[in-house]
């Protein structure tokens, strides 16, 4: 008997052939896939060490689907119709874990699963069970819907407002701390026809300056030598909370080669828009303001 992570172990009654118990193999003890296995049982959710007997067999899965091609329920099954490709789930789990600064071992301990199974979920097009997703979502401070990609393509903030919200002004130091997390922000500018525009950009904060890459002749290149506003925010859909930070300052193009090299070396992000974007724009904030929405009792 040989198995892979994510396969289903089925224990049948020798007399009737009916399934007596089944579970998902979440841990291997031998590289060749031979027993014993760590199995999470579908009827209890418990993980136990199993030495399969003659009444057990392994149901091998191929990229999250049963080998027979039939979609089944239970351990190792696919998410409901319309859900994201199972491989996307693992990528979202890994991204959420990294944002929190957690190792796989720390995340697995929080989610009550073995680290090898978490590695399998992150690296393979796996289809974790609903129970596993619930524990992972709880461990990562997110929702199962978010791990499945629910709401992708929709604007944030469509959930219900808090019953008793409180709007707090943020001080300059907290604004700097939130701004320096880097990611995607929005820069305001005036187009040649005099109309205002707001453009999202991938940005970093390096030595106190907001920097982003663009291309000469692009819309965002119009910010150079202008006073601009730059906004970044975060929305927690599950809790109906969030914050925003607004920076105002003068935008200038970075021309010194040694400074450009330093920015390239220290940048955390690259432009999602792709293409050749070698022109660096720097915004040195002269004012920082921000607000946060929380429940009134916090």
Count up the helices: 7
Biggest β-sheet description: 6 strands, antiparallel, barrel
Share in β-strands = 25-35%
What oligomeric state do the depicted chains represent? single chain
Instruction: Based on Cα principal axes, name the global outline.
Output: elongated
**Strand runs, count:** 14
Low-pLDDT windows of residues: 62-86
Mean pLDDT: 80
Structural class: alpha+beta
In whole angstroms, the N-to-C terminal distance is: 55 Å
> How is the largest sheet built, in terms of strand order?
9-10-11-14-13-12
Radius of gyration from CA coordinates: 25 Å
List SSEs in N-to-C order: EEEEEEEHHHHHEHEEEEEHE
- Helix proportion of residues, in percent? 10-25%
Give an overview in words:
By secondary structure, this protein is of the alpha+beta class. Helix content is 22%, strand content 35%. The chain has 7 helices and 14 strands. The chain has helices spanning 86-99, 104-111, 115-123, 130-140, 144-148, 172-179, 257-266; strands at 8-12, 19-28, 37-41, 47-50, 56-59, 61-62, 65-66, 165-170, 183-190, 196-206, 209-214, 227-236, 241-253, 279-295. The strands form 3 sheets. A 6-stranded antiparallel β-barrel has the order 9-10-11-14-13-12. It has a 5-stranded antiparallel beta sheet with strand order 4-3-2-1-5, with no helix packed on it. β10 (196-206) and β11 form a beta hairpin. It is elongated. It starts with 7 loop residues before the first strand and ends with a strand. The model is unreliable at 62-86 (pLDDT under 50).
